[in-house]
Amino acid sequence: MDGQVMANGQQGNIALATVIEFSIQRTYHELMILSELLPRKTDMERKIEIVQFAHRTRQLFVRLLALVKWAKNGCKIDKCMAISNYLDQQARLYIDTADGLSKLARNTLVQARLPAFSIPVAVDVLTSGTYPRLPTCIRDKIIPPDAITPEEEASTLKRLTQIIEYRLVTSDIPRAFKQLTAYDGRVKLLVDKEFSATLTVMGDYATLPWRLLGIDILVEDLDSRDGKPLVHEMQISYLHTLVQSRLVDTETPLYELYTVLHAFCQSLQLEVLYSQVQKMMHEQLNSYVNIEKYIPCKRLLISYWRPKVSSVLPQYQNFLPAIYKIDIHVDETDVYKPLRISHTPTSVKSSSVQLPFSLKSNQLSVEKILLETIHAWSYVRLGELKQTLEQMNIATDFDITDLPPTLTFKVIKPCMDTEFVRISIDCQLGTFTVSLTQLSYECKVLTDLQQHLNLPSEQQNNSTIKELLFKLKLWMGLERCRSSIQYVRTACHNSLPLIHSDQHPLSKFGANVLYVKVPLQETLYVVVVVNVTPSEPLTLKHKFYLLPVKPCTYSGDTTTADVSKVYLKPGALSRLDSNALIQANCVHSLMEVDAEAEEVERQRSKESCYFVSQLISVVSQCEMRAEFVLLAEHLWKEGIHHQGLQEEQGGAPCKLTLIRMPSLNGEADELLSVLLQATIRIDMETMKWVVEFIFSKDPVGEDATSSHQCIFTYDIRQVHDAATTVTSLLRDWRGMVKLYNLCVQYNQVFSTLSHPVSLYQFNYKSLQLSYGPSRNYLVIITWQDKKHSGEAKDCRYDIKFTMCRTTHGESSQNPHNITAHFLELLINRPNTSLAQFMQVLCETVTPLAAIQQLPEIAAFGLQHSSKVVPQPVFTILVHSPTYIKIGYRQCYVIDIILCENNRVMVKDGAYGLFDTQGGYATYTPAPGLKAFLTQYEDSDPRLLARSTLLAEEEHPPTPSNLPGLDTLDALLGPPTRPSPHRQDPSPKPTFQGSVNSPTVAPSPLGGFGSPLDIQMTSPALPMNSPANIPAPSPSSNILAASPGLLYHPQGTPQGLDSGTGFPNPSPKSSWLNSPAAAASSNYTLSPRAAGISQTSSSPRTDQLAGRRVAARSTYNVPTFLSHSSLAKMLSSKPISRADNAAEQFSPTRCCPLERFLGSAQLKRHLSKILGNDIKDKITLVTSGVETGTISWIAESLQYKVFMNNTSQGLQLSVTHSQDQSQPNVMWTSEELSLLERFFVQRVACAPYKQNNMLSFCRMTATPAKIIKDFIRIIRKQLFPDLNTLWRVEWCLTLPRDTSRRIEKSDRLETGIGAMIVQSNKILYVLKFIRNSGTESQGDMMQFSAPFVYEIGSDVTQLADKTSSNRPDSSFTLPINQILQNIRQQQANYQQQHMTAVYASCQEICSRLVLPTNLI
Fold first, then answer.
1. What are phi and psi of 1332, to 5 degrees?
2. CA 795 from chain center: how many Å?
3. How confident is the model over 611-656, as pLDDT tens digits?
4. Please, what is the angle between helix 834-852 and helix 820-827, to 10°?
5. For FRET with 84, which of 65, 692, 756, 1269 sits at 20 to 30 Å CA-CA?
6. Could you tell me which of 1348, 1313, 1359 has the C-alpha nearest to residue 1173?
């Protein structure tokens, strides 16, 4: 590189990259030197050196920077430099030329002289063009003579070819040369696969010898050498010399040529075969092939079928097979023959088998020779074995196949292809191998047969072979049974741990036995015995026996037996007639036989040769009949009569026909009257019980001519579980009876129902009724048993609510899922009819559908607390089918009681009906609730009179004859504990201390906890102390409801005292664990309510109680609403223009109830904020303010927050303050209206977050100039400018993606107030949204940025602790740059009466550009 740089330097230029590289290398070199030298110097010297190094480096790179800037115009300079260099080069050429001519003239030409020229030579060259004066000896010795012409060459070769042909005709030629070819003055002698030689003669004299031109050895070793030449060139050269010498000195030159080359090729062939055997022994057959003897150029002796007995075949330790050998040698009698092959042994009895006796020239492979020899000997040995087996008459269809030779035959008929016995010869060992086609595991019979066949001939016994083949037949028969039994879900065993005497019939069967377990039966086995008949030795015969067993212990010699093993004791052995079991008209299938009796042979039906269909039929019939017998016994025990086991028509399986079902104390009489048939069958595919009931008519009466079918299925279990199946059948029968009676009731009262109810479906398993205004709600009634005992107390109706169809705008959930638990208790009451139950459903479906619309999604920031957790808006607590409590954010609670005639009763649930001290401790009375409910109240004066009547506490409730308020007291009775429909994820409050008596659950529609508005406490009675009050229900935070009833038009209902109307502690109550028992035993009536005079009470006590009652009656007067009014109050959809006017400024739509309760809670929380959080920065106004209005003054502005009577929401009024102590700041009407509008749209709006109110109030307590800037931000938020890059929103609560970005935000959680004022700093959060007309709302790019404003210095900075390399901090650098520019132009913004709060917002909206990869 240095040379290149110097060369470039001489030319006057250098590359810029080289300059930069040198500069960097120099800087790095100096830095390394400093790192080594500075530690040795003092501190002052180190500082001086570092400063000097920094100065030098800075100067260097400053010059380099100037050079780079100057290089921008380098193209023009390069052109000028190129022109200048070209002109300089031309000038140098002129100067060099002048200097050279001057030197030539002054020095060289002065001393120049000419030699003496050779004139004769020049004349010869110029005239003749040659130089004839050279000596002739040079021409004679160096210049070759002229070559002959092609015509002369062709004629010479033709003549030479004729001479060679003449010589061949007149000479004696060996007969091995079968191919002689004369061409181009030469002749080629060829012996195929050995050699080829090319000869010629040097003249036409007969005495001239043959001249050998070339030799080619054609012997190849394709197995070992991969076609490479076997003879080296030096060997070829030696052969060429040897043969040429023989051609000169003999009278028969061609014979000498053949003798020498043929002997060499045969020796080469023997060497090739020898090497192949060595390779084979080394790689494959080291233990089975051996070289017995090898004489080079003469003989190769190979032995095969020589196993190593000790390691390869230990079973042949007493047997060493005969030695088989192959001798490959040269035929000395005839030199013209190829290599000969001799075999040991030499005798072959079969004339059809031929062994190889000569080595073919094209098969120089010892592997092929061995394969042909082994193949021939295999045929010989298999043929001898075939003759031996044919003489035994034990098998048939003998055949010897080829490649490899295999003897196949049949031992049974009929026989599959996979059952042929195959005997082959092992190519390596030379032993017999016996196998079955496709047998994947070892068979002992085949192993024994193979070992016997491999014994020496003098040790073999034909009787032993015959016996082994007989055992093989029986084994194949058992194998067929094992394969067939795989299609049945059971197991088979070759043996069982049976303990029996020698006299038992099992002892006579021997080893050819198979035990098949009857499916699903632990103590029944089918014994399969396989045998052959003497008349048909190739035909198998199967016999079947039924063997019952039972577990037992071993009682014999314990020294040889395993005592821990489970043994079985066999019972009586029964012969099974397979033909009788298969036939359909046979009634019994088990026939006892005596062990000594003569066997009765039956004609067997034709079966598959491999699949034993008789075994499958026998096992299936045993299984099915055993199940039927056990089931029939349990049916008789349970009182279900049947006709016994019967056969189906057409050979179908058995069946049980039931002739009598239980009447269930008369409940099933109507169903039994229409029952035509009941049948029990078994589905063999699924192995299940199928019970079919056929009824004569439809209970609804729609189709009285056709029959109706009902099917039940039960799993087939073990033997001991048949009682479970019968119990399940009785349970389903009881359910059919219950549902049929309900359906009959519906049919009877269908015409009298006043509500739209229709039968959707009845299938004897469930009753489905559709109801509702459009009949789109569905109730499914089924009968369920909680236990399997079958007792009545464990059985009950189970109901499920769903939708049969959904119209547009409706919910996909049935609203009765809210009260499903209590409705299930209602329908299971003894005195409840289906008509009454459906009346309750129809009366309550509309208000419950309205309640179902209340939002239940949890949100952050709803409550102001140190720990921000998501909280639901509404929580629904169900006390009865007609009494529901709706909790709002654990602050307010509303009681809704469902009445008849499309009416509901609504009141504040924070007051207890018997509480005289103002309500529960954990719930707050909602101020103004009565006025809010009055907007939706019906104008019926009778309902208003009833509301006043319910508020009176001086007298117990009396019956009322007002229309539309009739109750179903006979239908609904004592309630159960309340059940919350929706779970609140936040901790729920519980009532403690201040509650002196439980809230009675009012239910004018029925009687589930009807309210008793009677004072139940008395200071003089100790029973009413807090210690005697029962604890709240564990499933709810509301106390258990009292079982009282409100009105009783039909008289005092059962369970109430006729004198007082209070619960009667009678043991007749059907719910022993219900709160009714606790209420009746723990609560005592006040003397005033019971009509008893109280002498111990003082006048002051009466006055206090009267004032509490008066105050309580003012707030807790119930309000009656119609269903449409309730739906209007709970629906978030605008119904009319007047209703929608309240939501014209609200971006989030909510129901009127949520708007009212949320506004009330915000107003309550506003008082806490003004009294605690910002009390030092504002002035509260208490005088001259209307009732219900909260007012405060801050920064010359007076704020008034009040409830709007029209929209029932909070509204803000901002005016100039008249307080002279406040600073005089000019405010425009537009600014004040923006504050009021923002308060309605963003603060006091759904979901009514308390932290929104907190942030807004903190903003009002800041200096006036900051308030003006926030008003400007509010203007940009409410009226966005689409011409800017971004639009802005002021975040009142801390977003999720911002809480982790703020510095020191360990205590700042998502959802807290995003406006924090501490000393001289203000933290606020702005959200920026990109303006784009093409992107949807979900695709718009947006981010939230936290800012910190310092009031004293008027500086705004980004409160971001994230690093710049994180993906969520991509906007940090651009915003910081904008904020830095604002600080530089701070004076300009102050002249516009603008702080850095709005200036930063305006500049970001106008100038912020993010990186392209984030857009």
1. -155, 130
2. 40
3. 777 788 888 777 777 778 778 888 888 889 888 777 776 545 678 8
4. 170
5. 65
6. 1313
